[in-house]
Amino acid sequence: MMPGSPSTPLHPTRLRIAYGVVGFVIAITGGLGNALVTANLLDLQGALGAYASEVAWLPAAYVMTNVSMNILLVKFRQQFGLRLFTEVFLVLYALIALGHLFVNDLGSAIAVRAGHGIAGAALNTLGLYYMLQAFPQRYRIRGLVLGLGIGQLALPLARVFSTELLEFGEWRGLYLFELGLALVALGCVLLLKLPPGDRHKAFEPLDFVTFGLFAPGMALLTAVLAQGRLAWWTETAWLGWALAGSIVLTTAAIAIEHYRARPLLNTRWLATGPMLRLALAIVLIRIVLSEQATGAVGFLQALGLGNAQMRTLFSIVLLGSVAGLVTSALTINPARTWPPVVISLLLMMAGALMDAQASNATRPEQMYASQFLLAFGSTFFLGPVMLAGIGPVIGQPRNLISFVVLFGMTQNLGGLLGSALLGTFQTVREKFHSSVLDEHLTLLDPQVAARVHASAQAYAPTVADPALRDALALRALGTAATREANVLAYNDVFLLIAFIAFCTLVWIIASRAWARLRAVPAPVASPPAPATDAA
Predict the structure, then answer these.
(1) What does the angle CA 280 – CA 263 – CA 203 come to, to the nearest 5 degrees?
(2) b/e map of 118-141 (b: 16 or more CB within 10 Å)?
(3) What is the pLDDT, as a whole number, of residue 393?
């Protein structure tokens, strides 16, 4: 139906199964490499000898290249076909990953992530096309939902088994597995080809000018969102310069597209009410979904737990994600795309409220139910939202690039924005709670004095100096106060997430109700009866 997309002939059952398997491999490869790094940033930080702000460039580099690559990818496959693009960049990605095994420094690791971002943009689309080939026409919309959602399984899947990769070869175990995934995906693409589709000349010289402005603008914005809460927003000068440069470059790209006869990005269509509401809804939902990565995982890590202690929790998250994906595929209805979004928000809000009751005694077992609800909602909403946005594109294929860029940007930048917002809020609230707790930690308080004395006595068998014992006891008390401040701050984060989910839910319901009221036609007045001869 769209130029550059493969045709969908009738396939025998065995070939459909093969397309489904290859689609799963390609889609999971598109997300699992970056998920392995995201799930093990602390281990990679030690292995690479980097600071927290330095190792944060690894996931940021992936988003930097991935967020803007779709702007060229759509036209490339319209003119040359998607397979050529995928084969070229899969080979490049595999070579970069192989080189990193021999040049083990932070710079080469960032290059691998940037290469994966470029290849990942193509793999996500390619996996979707393969998955569509696996379904007959009457069920093809279910293939669309599955093709979109498989990539969302990458992060919980990586957290489940990545510990064994680290035990096998430390950081090299992660990158060996990532290299193997790239080679397997390349073999699948070469062995089982997609059916041919229509192609036509698509590129124009101004397209590259737009990309040359838009891509660095998005990269600078990504850097600000990734580094802002680590370098802190108001204390690092380059964050302000990067944000200013991002605004200038992105505005210039939009200005060029706005006045083009055949724009790469249809700014007038993107600025319409339905598209703006769709983009805002996706961004808000992605912010809410940051509860899993920034909220629950950050909370448990603050209590001293690692991936090995949270493996069962991640398995339940993976199960919830699969359940949401399968349920969405079985219940998808093109005529009713917004009810699943409402249900997802309700589940996310319930999960966040359950987590808001956490304490320093909370362990993964107490978060099984809440994280299952959040995981279910994270995959249940994605297909219907995509379907709601792609409906107008079918009637106007020239807007396909604009929609793909909009959807990819809201997904990627929404996740980064959520992590930045929630991480900043958690830091601010932790400082607030620490100041409140420290005000009450005085040795004039009998309870505090008794606590310090008891802690000092515990060091008596190993420390002979009474002054040193008291100093160690005071430090232990300060550590406990910091831990409690972090627990209270994360509870505030969970409440904020629930509040954002509630506001998004109310806004979506109100906007849908208002749209229905406006769509109701006004009653037509009946014409007057004709006058009779007698009258």
Answers:
(1) 120
(2) bbbbbbbbbbbbbbbbbbeeeeeb
(3) 60
Answer with the one of 263, 294, 323 that is the final residue of a domain. Answer: 263
> Two tokens at 308?
């090995």
Classify residue 37: in a domain, yes or no.
yes
Which of 109-118, 243-252, 402-411 tops mean pLDDT? 243-252
Q: What's the count of helices (H) and strands (E) in the chain, helices before strands?
A: 20, 0
Nearest to 131 by CA among 8, 33, 48, 40: 8
Question: Mean pLDDT over residues 136-152, rounded?
Answer: 81
Residues 317 and 381 in one domain: yes
Residue 491 in tokens: 């509870």
Which of 200, 217, 199, 201 lies closest to 257 in space, CA to CA? 217
Q: Are 134 and 6 in contact (CB under 8 A)?
A: no
Considering the domain architecture, whether residues 243 and 276 belong to the same structural domain is answered as no
Full domain range(s) for residue 407: 266-422+493-517
Residue with tokens 């006004």: 522
Q: Tens digit of pLDDT for each residue in 214-263?
A: 888 888 988 888 888 888 888 888 889 999 998 999 898 888 888 877 77
The whole-angstrom separation of Cα 127 and Cα 146 is 10
